[in-house]
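Thread: Protein GrpE, structure

OP (GT): Posting the sequence first so everyone is looking at the same thing. Length is 177 residues per the record. Can we get the structure tokens written out before standup tomorrow? I want them in the notebook alongside the other entries.
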Amino acid sequence: MSENNEKKVASEEAQENGATDGTQKTELEIAIEEAAKWKNDFLYLKAEFENYKRNALKERSDLLKFGSERIARDLLEVVDNFDRALELGVTPETAQTFKVGMEMTAKELKDMLNRHGIQEIPSAGQMFNPQHHEAISSEPTTEFPDGHVARVFKKPYKLHDKIIRMGQVVVATTPQK
């Protein structure tokens, strides 16, 4: 009876190991099949990752190349308004209308910049801030307290929370008596 039990156990092991024709796979054959399966899985994942890297590089390149498209389109609308104003020409009779048109176009430009996250940093009369301002000179004045911005030559701007242009300012000092 022990011979029958041994054949039954061997038969069950053969079925578990994938042998159906009565031949039993050795542990080596099973290990080779598993290694081949793992190798194929690895090669598939490697190819997928290479495709991912290639697509990510292309997306990054396209973003750098075309990332300013929205702001460019909006800016072209403002340029069109300037071109139309310059085509009309300015005469003494149209000077006031021309000025109003330029003011409207300037407001349109500032609104467009705000829509894209570009904002002016208020400076005149504010305390001098070396993170926002570049002092190009100082002048004695009683109009503003010492260390405050007396005049602005170039306004500072930020894009969201990042300073993209420092302001050029004149800093007030206390007059000598």
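GT: Both are above now. Quick notes for whoever picks this up: The mean pLDDT is 88. Strands lie at 118-120, 133-140, 149-154, 157-159, 162-165, 167-173.
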